[in-house]
Write a structure and sequence with these properties.
514 residues; seven-stranded mixed beta sheet; six-stranded parallel beta sheet; 17 helices; alpha/beta
Length: 514
């Protein structure tokens, strides 16, 4: 049961961090307006989506221009960049996201984009750090627009003078993810061997350069066409994954930053040093499962970490002013230079997302706002097939199944089995908690088997737990001990050891009185 609860909590927390925390919801306060004043309010062009679906749901529309409050700055966006986060929001996948606040049937926030760079146009009366005319970059929900309002003390910093707006806009999520993954999770030290899996992507290109700035010996893994590019940004060694499996190379690394998640986790343990660190970057691809998507792999890493000496974990970026300033210094010093693959105008955001979803972008894909006079919508008359209408129904059914399967059913079955036992053994204390724990352990095993290995593992786990349940019903203590161990949770081990000790004591007393 404890393992089941831990995995569920981990999954929900990971989903919240990946799809809610990274977007930095810094919505400006909007003064109330009458219909007459609203019609006369300044307008701007922005990308919006009213339904979940494929890139065709995106539209370029005129909406109300934001007005900064006392603690905000109004930024005229000159460039923005695309992240995997954007297509997850656009499609409403994995479905667990919708139940966690982004909207069950339709998106609650119809704006898209996070990374931006631009010029400060106005500041609130409490803002002293910025002034009109300053060039800034940062992260803010709704960045695919002509203007954004951002809190001055959040994820916004002065743009390095040696960077273009396009380069600066490519930095926030990708570069901060690389920085925090290497510095905070990987704890990279000078002289250590670091492997970047997916070194040619948005996060990967930043990770190679940041790891080099830390004094590490860097190996980049990428495809044939990207080898020269990865070398050019500082990688000491490059591996062509189309020709060589680095997990079988025999080389050992202190830190592995995995941006793609294409290799089995056990393969990484073979090339990590005994105390090495594996850091999985969240995000996932468009072909990941639609229910929990990229969250299955971190659950696997969580389980595997219990059985190996290496640290296996996942991280999500936390956009903040301090790290943006650190990155600005690195870029100003020439130690980090953003790599841009393609640029698209604001009217072609859908094409940019399609290209990013293909998974072959070299560096970052950037949106430019040099000319936003386009008047036609991106997706005129959205095709019915592109809007996801079945997801919400499935989500509701899933929640009903979870509530019934994880809470009600175990309680009812445990009480029924306990009553049956007490009828047959009126002189003995029942196993009410024991039955409940056994059922929950079984549910946990089934859920874990589905996530990790599929149908075959479900059958095996089902047979194992069926045998254990039978022996448990026969009051064999070793079956109880086995179920406790299979919870994979030290807290459960302590609680159930105390419980089992008490039950043994009761059995001993009952035996001695016979």
């Amino acid at each position: 049961m404890k393992a089941n609860i831990e995995i569920l909590i981990t999954t929900f927390c990971l989903s919240a961090l990946l799809f809610a925390g990274a977007a930095l919801a810094q919505e400006p306060s909007r003064p109330s307006q009458t219909a007459a004043t609203a019609s006369a309010a300044p307008r701007m062009k922005a990308i919006v989506y009213h339904n979940y679906g494929l890139p065709d749901v995106l539209r370029l529309e005129e909406i109300e221009k934001p007005v900064p409050n006392d603690n905000q700055v109004l930024v005229r966006v000159r460039a923005a960049s695309v992240n995997p986060l954007d297509w997850h929001y656009m499609e409403g996948t994995p479905y667990i996201m919708r139940a966690m606040g982004i909207g069950l049937r339709k998106p609650t926030d119809e704006r898209l984009g996070v990374d931006y760079a631009g010029t400060v146009e106005a500041v609130g009366k409490n803002v002293t750090e910025f002034k009109p005319g300053d060039e800034v970059f940062g992260g803010k929900t709704g960045a695919f627009a002509e203007y954004v309002c951002v809190l001055a003390d959040r994820a916004v910093a002065l743009k390095p003078a040696n960077l273009t707006f396009e380069q600066a806009a490519s930095v926030p999520i990708a570069a901060i993810t690389a920085l925090q993954g290497l510095r905070d999770k990987g704890k990279v030290q000078p002289g250590q061997k670091v492997l970047i899996n997916g070194a040619s992507g948005g996060v990967g290109t930043f990770a190679v350069q940041i790891a080099k700035s830390f004094g590490a010996d860097v190996t980049g893994v990428c495809s044939t066409r990207n080898l020269d590019m990865v070398r050019s940004i500082g990688a000491d060694h490059v591996i062509d994954y189309t020709k060589e499996d680095f997990t079988k190379s025999g080389q050992r690394y202190d830190v592995i930053l995995d941006n793609v998640g294409t290799q089995p986790l056990l393969g990484f343990t073979r090339v990590l040093k005994p105390k090495g660190k594996y850091v999985l970057i969240g995000g996932g691809g468009p072909n990941d499962g639609r229910w929990i998507g990229p969250l299955a792999r971190p659950v696997k890493a969580l389980v595997l970490s219990r059985f190996v000496t290496q640290e296996m974990g996942m991280m999500f970026a936390e956009l903040n002013k301090k790290d943006l300033s650190i990155l600005a210094d690195l870029m100003q010093a020439g130690k980090v230079t953003p790599v841009i693959d393609r640029t698209y105008p604001l009217s072609q955001v859908s094409d940019a997302i399609r290209y990013l979803e293909e998974g072959h972008a070299r560096g970052k894909v950037v949106i430019t706002l040099k000319d936003t006079n386009e008047t036609s919508p991106i997706g005129a008359n959205v095709a019915a097939g592109s809007v996801n209408t079945t997801g919400p129904v499935l989500i509701v059914l899933e929640f009903i199944a979870v509530v019934v399967g994880v809470t009600i059913v175990p309680i009812v079955v445990a009480l029924a089995l306990n009553r049956r036992f007490q009828r047959r053994n009126p002189d003995k204390r029942g196993y009410r908690w024991g039955y409940y724990f056994s059922i929950m352990s079984f549910i946990a095993a089934m859920g874990l088997a589905v996530i990790l290995c599929g149908v075959g593992a479900v059958i095996v786990c089902g047979l194992i737990y069926a045998v254990l349940a039978w022996f448990f019903a026969q009051r064999y203590h070793w079956a109880w001990i086995t179920l406790t161990i299979f919870s994979f949770n030290p807290v459960a081990w302590i609680i159930n050891s105390i419980y089992l000790w008490k039950r043994w004591a009761e059995d001993s007393v009952a035996t001695s009185t016979i």
